[in-house]
Amino acid sequence: MSIFINRVLNMKHIKLIGFDMDYTLVRYNTEKFEELTHNLASRKLVESFDYPKKLINLKFDFKRAIVGLVTDVRNGNLLQVSRHGKVKIAYHGLNLLDFKKQKDIYQDMAIDLRSPDFKSLDTSFAISNGVLFSQLVQLKSEGVELPSYKQIADDINNAIDILHQDDSLKSIITNNFNKYVIKDPDVTRMLERYIDYGKKLMIITNSDYGYTKKLLDYAINPYLQNHKKWQDVFELVITYADKPRFFKQQSRFLKIDPQTGLMSNHEGRVDKGIFQGGWFGKLQKDLGYSGSEILYLGDHIYGDVVSIKKRCNWRTALVLGDLESEINSLKEAAPVQKKIEDLMGEKQKLEVEINKLDTMRYEGKKVNYSQINKHFEKMDALNIKISDNLQKYKTFFNPYWGEILRAGYDESRYAELVEKYACIYMTKVSDLFKYSPKIYFRPYHRTMPHEEIAFTDILKKC
């Protein structure tokens, strides 16, 4: 896959490249990973939160949630929101809200995503969360005695947090790496190439050191050519970073002994070795790099991209694994999209003619009303064809939510964050292997609506 560029990024100027680990440096089989999380969280809700035992039998449906959705914990809805904050699709439990019900709730107003009533699902780790929330809301709507929607959302979050903290999830992963982890030799080849070009490499991950070591031993070490182990590849490794707090609040670094995993207080410089916790301010000061000399790659739009851009001005890259299948779907849907555009072009020509005739009528000029009626009849026929092709177009994407980066005709709220805060984005880290470490990434020229007039006039003259 290609690298997608939002703003200029000259890799010659990048001296330090940092990576998140989970779903970034190391890819997971998302469907299997999230199914495991969903099943364990369902059981945890029963065993530790007194939820009905029937939750254990809930079946995971991977398609029921995608990255970028928003949970409305007041009304119990799962939402897809446009970049303008408008709700485009809403499900209550497993049922699609019809347009009237949706409008009654949200009043066709831009919702305030800063409100505690809304929770974002902005990483692949959140898919199981969204699926389970929808299922519990469905059970509640069917009469099963469950707490408030907000309490359900909080309990799901807490249950999943416990799974990550008590080793019940990671112990299964580490014993079945071949099932849950996707090996990618090009990642290791890319890392060693960057070192050959004089780049320094680091990891900042929310995972603990024990899990980090096991995972990287499995995913990186087998493919190393010029180094013995992954610890030789990365100048600096920060575990249990607690992002996005790592980029917000000061905290002490603990030094980790790579042989024993034991930790000790650390008072000196943080520029080489393996650590736990800390904060970016001391890290950047000790490394001696400006923000523009650091590139960080991660999969979480808030924890790895937005928080960085807002607070330390590092260059940012988003890894959006779900985008790979979406790009393939876009390619398959291209002929249908072309038909829609052609039909819309015919419709716009009719609209121009109708507008012209209506203006003449308003000015008191003689108008052929039968001609106007014919235009409207053609318009109705075109609308039917456009509607049919739009329905066909939707079949290429998620059956419930459609595209990740679109919400209806508009870009999705998630797409806005990607465009605004990620310098570049890609489907996987190894996509960088196809590019020189000295490449100058430049975005395409973006055309604003008023500029279309000039380009249209030029095309007409050609």
Automatic annotation (TrEMBL):
Signal peptide: none annotated. This is 5'-nucleotidase. NCBIfam families: HAD-IG-Ncltidse (TIGR02244). Belongs to the 5'(3')-deoxyribonucleotidase family. It comes from Thiospirochaeta perfilievii. GO terms for molecular function: 5'-nucleotidase activity; metal ion binding. SUPFAM superfamilies: HAD-like. PANTHER family: 5'-NUCLEOTIDASE DOMAIN-CONTAINING, HAD-SUPERFAMILY HYDROLASE, SUBFAMILY IG, 5'-NUCLEOTIDASE. Keywords: Hydrolase, Magnesium, Metal-binding.
